[in-house]
Amino acid sequence: MTTIGHKTWPKLTSRNEFRFLADLVMKRSTGDQTLVALQDQQSGTTRFANNQIVQNVDTRRGSLSVTVAFGRRHGTASTTDFTAGSVQQTVTKATEIAQLSPEDPEYLPPAGPQQYSTPPTTRVETTLAGPARRLEYANEAIGQCRMENLGAAGILSSSIATVGVAASTGLFAHEERTDARFSLTVQAGEATGWGAAAHRSIDHLRVQERTLTAINKAKRGLEVRELPPGRYSVILEPSAVAGLWSALLWTLDAKDYDKGTSALSGKLGQPIVDRRLSLRNQPDHEDLLGIGFTSEGLPTLASDWMTEGVLTQLSYDRFTAKARGIDSIPTLDAPCLSGAGSSLPTLQELIKHTERAILVTNFWYIRAVNPTDLTLTGMTRDGTFLVENGQIVSAVKNFRFHESPLQVFNRVEAFTNPAEAITSETGKLLVPSMRLRDFNFSSVTRF
Amino acid sequence: MPNLNQDELAELVLKRVVASGAEYGDIRILDSTTQTISGEDRRIDSIRDMQDRGFGIRVLYHGAWGFAASSVLSLEEAPRVADLAIEIAKGSASLAIDKVKLADEPVHRDRIVTARRIDPFAVSLERKTALLLETMEYVHRQAGIVRSSASLWARRDRKLFVSTEGSRLEFDLLAVSGEYDATAIHDGRFASRTFNTPHLRMGYELIEDANFLAEAPRIASQAVEKVKAPTTAPGLYDLVLDPEHLSLTMHESCGHPSELDRALGYEANYAGTSFLTTEKRGTFRYGSPHVNLVADNCEPETLAATGYDDDGVACQRWDIVRDGLFVGYCTNREVAPVIGETRSRGSNRADSWGSVPIVRIANVGLEPGTATLDELLAGIKRGIYIEGHGSYSIDQRRYNFQFGGDAFWLIENGKRTHMVRDVVYHGITPEFWGSCDGVADRSHRRRYGFITCGKGQPGQSGWMSHPASHARFRNVQVIGGQAGS
After folding, report:
1. If phi over 0 gives left and psi between -120 and 50 gives alpha, with beta otherwise, what is residue A143?
2. Does B146 share its domain with B255?
3. Interface subset of A 364-423, CB within 8 angstroms of B
4. Residue of chain B minimizing CA distance to A405
5. Given CB atoms, is A243 within the 8 Å cutoff of chain B?
6. pLDDT digits over B265-292, tens only?
7. Which residues pair with A150 in a beta bridge?
8. What is the reported pLDDT for A423?
9. Which residue, A240, A318, B101, B221, has most beta carbons within 10 Å?
10. Contact between chains at B46 and A132 (C-beta distance less than 8 A)
11. What is the pLDDT of residues A58-101, one digit of tens each?
């Protein structure tokens, strides 16, 4: 029995313990095939608002899921109780479901044994971080805001997990994953500024630097101007770019593509965004949250998804992949969007080289309006500014937008090197800041 | 929980909490079973039974909170988790400025059981999968349909709540829902039409009574009609919104801004704050005199009607908006005293044993008016009738919103005529509700709601119902649903 990092309690399910559990399940199962999946996690979040702690939590949750198949009939049951009796009940329940379920023409037996790379999914400093470390970082952010007579609201979270997948085909995968997050909204009267980070290492959250960024945005927002709705050049910071790209990435499903119910149907091999942009999956990247394997135990892969603006890859379920003769299914767990050619190194440089644009820190509540052309709507949030002659000249009231990433990312004027991007509604990506022309702000709100 | 008496575990934990010097503590021990059956394109693609057991301990120490939880239900784990909750609360207390003081609540000892005619977990899988497969077959009989999906969902929560104040509450709660949709393609476009039951606290009779099969041809033919329908010109339209559609409009533009924790800034970093700031209570005109929005966590079968919330506070009924005036908030024991209220409204709920309870929207519903649906339509020269849910988005203070819908019909000279597509309307919340000039009577009332209301960090899913009858709104800005519109 091993432990995670240097923690001795609570012990999350180790590789050997998962193998023992998986063997137990296989032995008890009478199915033609059996798949076992483990997620065992301890996570904590310290949440603050109005410059004090309002919520401070720590949860350990283990879950074991069993899928049993007879021919093409399959069923799944899961439990959070890892005692032998409960595991037996879970196998029995999955078996009963499988025996009573109709045949699924798309069912495939679990994959066989796989070779996995070992992306950097765990950082020991995060495994060691507990409530005291989270409180220390929260106090640091609150203290910086108090000194400026501003209000701080945010979170500091850290988690450790062991994840496993095993099957009667001999498939076996297990790895440890850590995750640390910081996000902060600074309030200066009506104005707000925001910053956020996510990393495998709690040491890489850069709490002080991101707090200062959020403070500066909030202070710049004290005097706000209202501009009319309309089309503007915009500078989107990485989180705003990530919000629009996440919506695009969710439309890559191959089955939807084949059935004609995707905005991308018919566009494989075609340019869909600016020719300077390329999207690549990079599970080994230290600053992304890549994983070693999928929930089905398939290895994650470094892979190209868009090259020089051309859509080159789709997201496959195993049945659709088999139907298309695809052996290795590409994954998109660690996306990096980059631009080729004359990029400006930083956001500050991009602002400096801009005559007039709206600078957007982040988007909020992005939702699809029209799935056929992928028109999205959403609001700017926590730092929206007017840039003129290379400088931020004032804050502006927040806008609602209506745009399709398939259109707006064909109106790229300039971009920076990729930077870390995380929002409350998306996973983590590396994306550039971008200046786009003719961005459609359809209405303005009261603040 | 095998070989472990829940009351013993609760007693062990709460003794430890009291001994620490904490002023308050509670424990929730929860055993949830969720069954989901889903299908797509004429096949059943997933049947899952999920058992989720664990306990969560909340400690209030020197005016600050700590919470710890675990899925390991053992006599070894319970003291560890209790000590961790105490340690965390002490850490919070070290940074506390305004000490939490809980509003008083009588001690309750009670048992709550959802009434049901048919236990959804006792209904055979064959019957359920046959219903979904047959429904999808019916949908695909319609020419032009290319895709379908169908699902059933049921959840049972067995919960024990015990507090250091002496409350002991047992729950055996059920909730059920079902839905399906049809997708049609035409001229390079695709569009879906959805049928769904409300999520309600009742048994499988909800599904049995919903007439999945009888409704399938209508849903399928309307999907085809929708994808072929003309667009509408942007402009000002009178709208008649159906109860299901209104459930989302109310949820986003009234429910969330009426959460007091948002108004006090607790959610500033994620879900947002509220334009209904505390000085507006009792004076702010939220809507027209036709608008009466009532929170009712006592109405049987609705999602938030659980007898007591996760503070152990008895469910209640109160006004949020009365005759158009904003008058009340959704509160818990922590935030109610901040605005001078002596008792919580009982709206503190967690989505599992592993989550800490937070203020949640109550069952906020629109009180019925006196009109019939035909009377609401009759007063419109040119407008749009909207059914169901579509796209939705709103700013973090809940002013600027935009809603789509599942299906739209043009209203001309008092009559619903043909379908139109790609309708979205937007507005500013108090202006929109101020334009409401009629609500249909109680015979039109339906009780739709949500089990996926996102709030909190870590994120939690809230459950609440939003009953309504049809309502009419004048001169609302409608825009097309394409990029650049």
Report:
1. alpha
2. no
3. 364-375, 377-379, 381, 398, 400, 402-404, 407-408
4. B483
5. no
6. 999 999 999 999 999 999 999 999 999 9
7. none
8. 79
9. A240
10. no
11. 999 999 999 999 999 999 999 999 999 999 999 999 999 999 99
Q: Are B49 and A154 inside 8 Å of each other by CB?
A: no
Same domain, B215 and B241: no
Q: Is the bond leading into A418 cis (omega within 30 degrees of zero)?
A: no
Q: Is residue A243 over pLDDT 70?
A: yes
Helices A15-28 and A84-100 sit at what angle, rounded to 10 degrees? Answer: 50
- Inter-chain contact B88–A100, Cβ cutoff 8 Å? no
CB contacts of A138 in chain B (<8 Å) are 95
Chain B residue nearest residue A406, CA to CA: B483
Residue B42 sits in a domain whose CATH number is 3.30.2290.10
Choose one of B228, B262, B282: the last residue of a domain. B228
Q: What is the ipTM score, two decimals?
A: 0.95
CB contact under 8 A, B89 and A56: yes
Show residues of chain B in contact with A104, CB under 8 Å: 43-45
Instruction: Give the pLDDT of residue B232.
Output: 92
Does B217 share its domain with B269? Answer: no
The pLDDT of residue A202 is above 60 = yes
Q: How far is B80 from chain A (nearest CA, A)?
A: 9
> Residue A200's closest CA among A142, A131, A141, A122?
A122
Instruction: Say how far residue B146 (Cα) sits from the centre of its chain.
Output: 31
Contacts of B53 in chain A (CB under 8 A): 79-81
- Average pLDDT of the residues in B10-18: 97
pLDDT in tens, A339-368: 998 778 899 999 999 999 999 999 999 999
Residue B128: its H or E element? helix B125-140
pLDDT tens track for B107-116 = 999 999 999 9
Closest partner CB to A80 (pick from B54, B66, B94): B54
Q: Are B304 and B347 in contact (CB under 8 A)?
A: yes
How far apart CA B295 and CA B347 sit, in angstroms, is 10
Binary contact (B395, A259; C-beta < 8 A): no
Dihedral pair phi/psi, residue A256, rounded to 5°: -60, -40
Instruction: Determine if residue A71 is left, alpha or beta; phi over 0 gives left, psi from -120 to 50 gives alpha, anything else beta.
Output: left
Chain A 174-193, residues with CB within 8 Å of chain B CB atoms:
183-185, 187, 192
> What's the pLDDT score for residue B2?
46
What residue in A sits closest to B182 (Cα-Cα)? A261
Q: Are residues B273 and B161 in the same domain?
A: no
Averaged pLDDT, B358-376 = 98
**CA angle at residue B259 from B257 to B260, to 5 degrees?**
110
Rounded to whole angstroms, what are the CA distances from B446 to A172, B330, B469? 50, 22, 6
Is B327 in a helix, a strand, or coil?
coil
Which residues of chain B are within 8 Å of residue A52 when distances are taken between CB atoms?
95-98
In whole angstroms, give the CA distance from residue B361 to residue B351.
13
User: Do residues A102 and B37 lie in contact, with contact meaning Cβ atoms separated by under 8 Å?
Assistant: no
CB contact under 8 A, B265 and A135: no
DSSP percent split of chain A into helix, strand, coil, nearest 5: 25, 40, 35
Contact A55 B64 (CB under 8 A): no
Structure token pair of residue A341: 């050619």
- State the pairing for strand pair B471-480/B423-428: antiparallel
pLDDT band, residue A1 (cuts 50/70/90)? very low
B244 and B224 housed in the same domain: no
Asked if A364 and B428 come within 8 Å (Cβ–Cβ), the reply is: no
Domain at A15-213, CATH class: alpha beta
Cis status, amide bond into B458, omega within 30 of 0: yes
Partners of residue A79 in chain B, C-beta under 8 Å: 51, 53
pLDDT tens digit sequence for B389-414: 999 999 999 999 999 999 999 999 99
Q: Find, in chain A, the residue whose alpha carbon is nearest to that of B92.
A: A53
Within this chain, do residues B42 and B156 fall inside the same structural domain, yes or no?
yes
